[in-house]
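Hi L., both proteins are below.
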Amino acid sequence: MSVITVPRILREKFGDEVVEALLDVINLNEPSKDLATKADIANLRTELKTDIAKLDGKIDSVKIALDLKIDNLKTALEGKSDSVKTGLEGNIRDLGWKQKLYFLILLFAMLLTNPKAMDLLGKLLGPVK
């Protein structure tokens, strides 16, 4: 806080109360040491730019790592889906043959146990000789 000397003539003319009020106003307008200077703001701006650049680098490295993990998972899932597909295709092929075999067994069982079916089959196949 700086020392301000008020001339005696002002004190006599306006009185001590007015001069003290004027001094209070002047003291309020005096620059405070808590306020940031242009240099402080420039330093802060430089620090922020440095921090932002570091964060950008970290974000890029995390993005690359995530992309790599996603690609690895995609490759693993594709391999598993191919093996599951191959297994299911084999199962379907096996079921197709089993279904045909069961149909033929059922047809022969019906033909052998039903005499009318044998007569019908004879009539149908008779002219084929």
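That was the first. Here is the second:
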Amino acid sequence: MAESPATQAQIVRQAERLAPRRNETVPPERAAEAMFHRIVAYIREFEANLDSEHEVGARMVSFGDTVQFHIVDMGYWNPDIVTFDGVDEGGRRMKLIQNLSQLNVLLIAMPKRIGHEEPRRIGFVLENKTNGDSAAPAT
């Protein structure tokens, strides 16, 4: 099935926005921070295409069983840790701590949580998060 010209143009624009900047070098001691900002860009792009009944979630498949959860926050600890805070469909809090060398995240559209009138959009909040070497979870 061929993609429409509009879809192809969107893919090109997305690739341009998410590609590392030319001549940009990231010192090894700030690798987690750089990855955090790239993931945030992907989340913002993903959220821009969601309807009002869905919010961003993640599916982790490397834990034996498939685990999926609503992402409510992210953080990092330079040089090599990225964290994902979330809530699963049963309302249980979760925190995934990933080394950059093992990082794989599948962003998925999840129905907004029960009791929430609006879907939670975290990309903008995460993008504005600056807190030294560690991005602390929002309260």
